[in-house]
């Protein structure tokens, strides 16, 4: 599965395949700004040791762009564009989920060994978060109005 584009707005999120540079010693992946990442990386964070049954996320971002990579283990992203939901399982270190648009995201079913690395386009700012689902829907409707004109 190279690109998975079932979102209403086609560019809101997609899966990206990274090239594995392997040799007899094992595997290596290089991720380079401008080539593999369509934004300047200002922040990298990772989520690990997620406790059994824990779900995370439950927010959208106003401006932030991210690439999420399960470099070890797996987890499921629930992606919601305000109209419909899609689940994408991240389970390969050579696959990244690029989220660029106004998308509500939830993460669940973390394997105990999951290390989820996130490359982000902005420094951490709580002001960029939409943590209320109804408010998120209002943002989606507002965005559509501005896109029409
Ligand atoms: P949060 O974004 O709510 O995590 P998730 O979406 O994975 O459930 O962040 C959890 C906490 O960590 C919250 O108190 C904010 C803090 N935080 C930072 O300080 N810097 C960061 O870059 C991130 C992502 C979170």
Features:
5-stranded antiparallel sheet, Jelly Rolls, single chain, binds thymidine-5'-diphosphate, disordered N terminus, mainly beta
Report on this model:
With 149 residues, this protein is mainly beta. It has a single domain (2-148), classed as Jelly Rolls. It is 11% helix and 36% strand. It is built from 1 helix and 10 strands; from the N terminus they run E-E-E-E-E-E-E-E-E-E-H. The chain has a 5-stranded antiparallel sheet, with no helix packed on it. The protein has a 5-stranded antiparallel sheet with strand order 6-5-8-3-10. The longest helix is centred in the last third of the chain and has 16 residues, at 133-148. The chain starts with 12 loop residues before the first strand and ends with a helix. The structure holds thymidine-5'-diphosphate.
Order of neighbouring strands in the sheet with most strands: 1-7-4-9-2
Distance between the termini: 35 Å
Largest sheet: 5 strands, antiparallel
Q: Secondary-structure element order, as H and E?
A: EEEEEEEEEEH
- Helix-strand category: mainly beta
Helix content: 10-25%
Portion of residues in beta strands equals 35-45%
List low-confidence stretches: 1-10
User: What is the total tally of β strands?
Assistant: 10
**Would you identify the CATH architecture?**
Sandwich
User: Domains counted in the coordinates: how many?
Assistant: 1
The best one-word shape is: globular
- Mean pLDDT level: 92
Alpha plus pi helix count:
1
- Report the C-alpha radius of gyration, rounded: 16 Å
Say which CATH homologous superfamily is assigned: Jelly Rolls
Q: What is the CATH fold-level name?
A: Jelly Rolls
CATH class: Mainly Beta
């Amino acid at each position: 599965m190279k690109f998975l584009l079932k979102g209403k707005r086609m560019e809101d999120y997609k899966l990206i395949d990274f090239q594995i540079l392997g040799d007899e010693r094992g595997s290596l992946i290089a991720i380079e700004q401008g080539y593999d990442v369509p934004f300047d990386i200002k922040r990298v964070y990772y989520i690990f040791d997620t406790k059994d049954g824990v779900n995370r996320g439950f927010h959208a971002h106003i401006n932030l762009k991210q690439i999420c990579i399960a470099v070890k283990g797996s987890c499921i992203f629930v992606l919601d564009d305000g109209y419909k939901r899609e689940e994408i399982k991240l389970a390969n270190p050579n696959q990244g989920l690029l989220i660029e648009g106004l998308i509500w995201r939830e993460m669940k079913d973390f394997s105990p060994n999951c290390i989820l690395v996130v490359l982000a386009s902005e420094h951490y700012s709580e002001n960029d978060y939409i943590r209320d689902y109804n408010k998120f829907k209002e943002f989606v409707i507002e965005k559509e109005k501005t896109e029409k004109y």
